[in-house]
Every structure is written in C-alpha cells, then in structure tokens.
Amino acid sequence: MSDVLELQDVSVVREGRALVDQVSWSVKEGERWIILGPNGAGKTTLLNVASSYLYPSKGTATILGETLGTPGTDVFELRPRIGMAGIAMADKLPKRQTVLQTVLTAAYGMTAGWQEEYEDVDEQRARAFLDRLGMSAYLDRRFGTLSEGERKRTLIARALMTDPELLLLDEPAAGLDLGGREDLVRRLGRLARDPIAPSMIMVTHHVEEIAPGFTHVLMIRQGKVLAAGPLELELTSRNLSLCFGLPLVVERVGDRWTAQGLPMS
Ligand SMILES: Nc1ncnc2c1ncn2[C@@H]1O[C@H](COP(=O)(O)OP(=O)(O)OP(=O)(O)O)[C@@H](O)[C@H]1O
Q1: Which helix (H) or strand (E) holds 89?
Q2: Would I find ATP-binding among this entry's keywords (predicted)?
Q3: What architecture is domain 3-90+163-261?
Q4: For the chain, which has fewer Cβ within 10 Å, the N-terminal or C-terminal residue?
C-alpha cells in the first residue's frame, strides 16, 4: 500500500509556540483515520497541513507523493486531488448560490460562478453525490438558508465532486442534533466502507461520532501525538484519559464507540 500522507517530524510554530509539535504520522491508501483531541490540541492545524494549505515550519509533509515546499511540487495541481469539508470552506462559499451550484462549482475548482457551461455529466455527478448525502430535496435551496446539518452534508458532497484521493473532514458532526448526527454517521459509515471511496481523515471531539468503517485513530494533545494506530488497539480508556486529561472509560458497543467520565470520588 502506498502512502497517502507522510509527515516526518512536522512542527508548525506560531509566535514561538509549537501548535503541532514533531508529529510523525503516515496514512496508507484505503485507511480511514480519526483525529481525536481536546480543544486547541492542533487537530485543525494538522488537517491544514494535510490539505497543503499550511506548510510545516519544520519537518517534511508528503501528500499523495508530493512533498510540500520542494521544487517539483505544484500545490495547485495537488489541491484538486484533496477534498476538504469544514467550516472554513463553508465561509468561502456564496450564500445565495443554490445547493446544486455549490456542489457543481467544485468540479471547476471555484467557490463561485454560474456563468460557466457545466457539462451534463458533472451535473449528474453533483446530483448523485447530493442524493448519497440525502440532499436531493434541497437542490434549488440557497446555501445560506440551510441548517447546520444540511450545510455539512452539502459540503461533503462538494468535497467528493473532484473525485479526491484523500478526503478531509473537519468536525462534520459538530452542531448537529442527535438525529442529524446519527444520520451523518450512517452516511459516513457507508462512505468509509466503500472500497472505492477515497482515503479519509476525520477530525472529531467525540468517539460517538466515529462511523463504522473507520480504521485508525491519531490522538493529539498540546500538538503532540499521544497515540496512533488501529482503533481497536489505540482507542483505549487509558489513551483517551491521557488525551483529554481526566479519567474516562471508553467502550465499544456493536460497531460504535462511547465514552464517559468516571464518577467523582
Ligand atoms: N495563526 C495562529 N497563531 C497563533 N496561534 C494559533 C494560530 N492558529 C491557531 N493557533 C492556536 O493553535 C492551537 C491549535 O489550534 P487548532 O485550531 O489546530 O486546534 P484544534 O485541536 O483544532 O482545536 P478545536 O478542537 O478547538 O477546534 C490553539 O491554541 C490555537 O489558538
């Protein structure tokens, strides 16, 4: 299996502080990773490196075989190979665009613009991805009028539109109600188990949001890797407690995970 992402001793330093601190991590083709960690741990910073939008201050980051900051690497060729769904992207998209337009513009590497002649085949693909994310009833709705959950599902459909080799999801279930979360987890589970779906990395704060089909976990705290490896081996009560800084018990229930704090003595 080839490497989709290979970080070697990567640090991201801002104002003298390492937001990501000497991280070495490799993601192989077909793996589906969860990044878990408390607020401010450096999860989004790490995802920004993986998306090629942030260069390491130290160390090397190789994404889909391209090493950032080396002469042979053109990030403008690399970026369309990476799908990214997160709040930062939502803010860049025009609120007046319809849901279908929002997804379609991704095929042309744009956030806006409806003057282009779109190919039928692209429109069919956009409709198919939106259908897969349960958004068929919203094709003509303006993006800015969507609920949090609907927006998140649209962004995932949009990220899939370029047929990425690597899909990055930044807290896709944040802000969703219980039904919305479970619906999204089910859809992400279907995607994660699809053998032709891209390699995936999902940032989350909650083990309950880990969809079946995800295979590995990276736990970070204060920019440092605390644990990295297969979920069954690394998602333990001990690691989770160290990661979040309080005693936690994690359990696997069927093909899902749940965690809770130990009662105070
Ligand atoms: N440009 C910057 N300059 C200085 N500090 C920054 C900068 N960007 C982020 N930080 C800090 O880096 C740390 C890590 O931020 P990051 O967004 O990666 O954390 P996170 O794990 O995604 O957090 P959350 O779970 O709250 O979203 C935070 O303490 C944040 O305040």
Answers
A1: helix 87-92
A2: yes
A3: 3-Layer(aba) Sandwich (3.40)
A4: C
